[in-house]
Amino acid sequence: MSRIGKKPVPLPAGVTAKVDGTQLTIKGPKGELKLAVHPAMTVAIDDATKQVTVTRPDDAAQNRALHGLTRALINNMVNGVVTPFTKKLEIVGVGYQAALAGKFLNLSVGFANTIKLPVPPGVTCVLADPTHIALTGCDRQAVGQFAAVIRRVRPPEPYKGKGIRYEGEHVRRKAGKAMASGG
């Protein structure tokens, strides 16, 4: 049995769960999330103990994989509606900056044009200053995906370290040509 999958997901105070066929809805103080559960998985909500359990029909390889995955997704949903997930990015480079214009994030990162990225629904984008971006939201996948899309615009390069990186990310630096030639 899956070690992750067999653990029940506790529902904190203020969080409600509802199953409608294969649709699971988790509602909490910070928002509401829905999950289309795979038809092979069975999700049960125990109101007495305030727990959500996931069971699988057999020990087939795909069902074993889906068992732990489904439980992990439900756990992330429960955690997200209580305390939203956060990803922080920083922009490094002379003249590189970000700006918010309505529902769009504008990135000026050394290209001829400004890159305009639409902020997805359910994700809040906050700029502490033009070089620091903070993304928050209940949906862990949406926050992480948007952070990856932003980083992909100009990933950090190894020679000068310029680009968009996650906060605290270590960029491995390389010596340039001038350092490589010995004489």
Any idea what the radius of gyration is?
A: 21 Å
**End-to-end span in angstroms?**
63 Å
Major β-sheet profile: 4 strands, antiparallel
* Tally of DSSP β-strands: 13
Order of helices and strands: EEEEEEHEEEEEEHEH
Please, what is the CATH homologous superfamily of the largest domain?
Ribosomal protein L6
Q: What is the SS-derived class? A: alpha+beta
How would you describe this structure to a colleague?
This protein is an alpha+beta fold and 183 residues long. It has 2 domains: 74 residues, Alpha-Beta Complex (Outer Surface Protein A, domain 3), CATH 3.90.930; 82 residues, Ribosomal protein L6 (Outer Surface Protein A, domain 3), CATH 3.90.930. The chain has 3 helices and 13 strands. Strand 5 and strand 6 form a beta hairpin. The longest helix has 22 residues.
Short description:
By secondary structure, this protein is of the alpha+beta class. It is built from three helices and 13 strands.
Write the layout of secondary structure elements.
Layout: E1 9-10, E2 16-20, E3 23-28, E4 31-36, E5 42-46, E6 51-55, H1 61-82, E7 85-92, E8 97-101, E9 104-108, E10 115-118, E11 123-129, E12 132-137, H2 140-153, E13 163-166, H3 177-180
Antiparallel strand pairs: 1-6, 2-3, 3-4, 5-6, 7-12, 7-13, 8-9, 9-10, 11-12
